Structures are given as C-alpha cells and as structure tokens.
Amino acid sequence: MTDQELFNGIAQRDNKTFLFLYREYQGQILRMVQQNNGNEADALDIFQEGIIALWTNISKGKFLLKDSAKLSTYLFAMCRNIWISKLRRQQKTQAIDGQLEANIPDEVNEMEAQHEQIQELEQQFRKLGEACRQLLRLFYYKKDSIKEIASVMNLTEKTAKNNKYRCMQNLRALYKTESQAQ
Q1: Based on CB atoms within 10 Å of each CB, which residue in 92, 111, 160, 182 is the most buried?
Q2: DSSP letter string over the chain?
C-alpha cells in the first residue's frame, strides 16, 4: 500500500488498512522497545497507542500527508515518543518508590521507639498519686493555666506551680529508673 492509500484507509477506519499497519510496522516497534528496556507486552501497548494517536491526528487534521512525509516514519516517531514518555514516568515512579522504601524502615523504627516510650511513660504516670495525675492532666492535656488548676484543686497558685514541678520530677525519676532497669 502507498502512503496515500494508508492515509485514506486510516481516515476511513478501514480494517484492512489497520491490519496492514500491524503486519508491516509492528516488528519495528517491537525491536525499538525491546532495545530500550522494554518487553513484548510493552511494545504491543506502545504500538496500539501509536496507531490510536495516528488515527486521532489524521481525523483531526493534525497530520497531513505531504510529498516528503512518510506515514511509517511518523508512526515510528509517535511510538518512540510514547515509549520515552512511559520510561520517564517509570523512572520517576521508581525514584519515588526507592526514596519511600529507603525512608520507611527508619520512620517505622522511629515510630515504634516513640510508641514504646509513650507506653512506658503512661505506665509510670499510673504509678503517681491521684493528685499528681489530676494536676498533670489538667496542665498538659487540658492545657489549663496554673491559675485555673489552683482554682479546681483548691490550692494557691504558688502551691499548684510547686506541685506541678514536684509531680513532673517524680514522673521523670520513675521513668528514668524504669528505663535504666531495662
């Protein structure tokens, strides 16, 4: 088939023309993809995408057959560009995946260590007296001011502040003693 016959057949969606394209040009695309880190399945996908892009460009008038233009060259260039784009996307994905995989173990280990520390701290917190637990909950969890805590616990502000300090010292000592024992 001549280039003009191929062009007209594609524009008219002629099945014989598409079969001819597959028989004549699929092998070239297969070799090009395989020589550039691809396999047969990749090549078939790329060729299919190239045929669709060729038909779309002919239908929309984006590709016009001129005297020096060869339809096979245009199809090959489109398939090559599609393959290059796919390789670039894969490289970006692999780079991102590699970065994620490299960071995951460190992050997981760090999170596990933090989780263990929190559990240990909670265990030591339970060993404090009720007054200390209440005071620390009000200050650190509810974010109440010393003035509000003093009012709730029926203390002076100075006493509330001193008790908070003492309770934290006790908690630190319990935590430190337990972590040294392990």
Answers
A1: 160
A2: --HHHHHHHHHTT-HHHHHHHHHHHHHHHHHHHHTTT--HHHHHHHHHHHHHHHHHHHHTTS----TT--HHHHHHHHHHHHHHHHHHHHHHHHHHHHHHHHHHHHHHHHHHHHHHHHHHHHHHHHHS-HHHHHHHIIIIIS---HHHHHHHHT--HHHHHHHHHHHHHHHHHHHHHHHHH-
If one counts every other C-beta atom within 10 angstroms of the C-beta of residue 30, the result is 18
The residue out of 98, 119, 144 marking a domain boundary is 98
The verdict on pTM exceeding 0.90 is no
Range of the domain at 152: 128-181
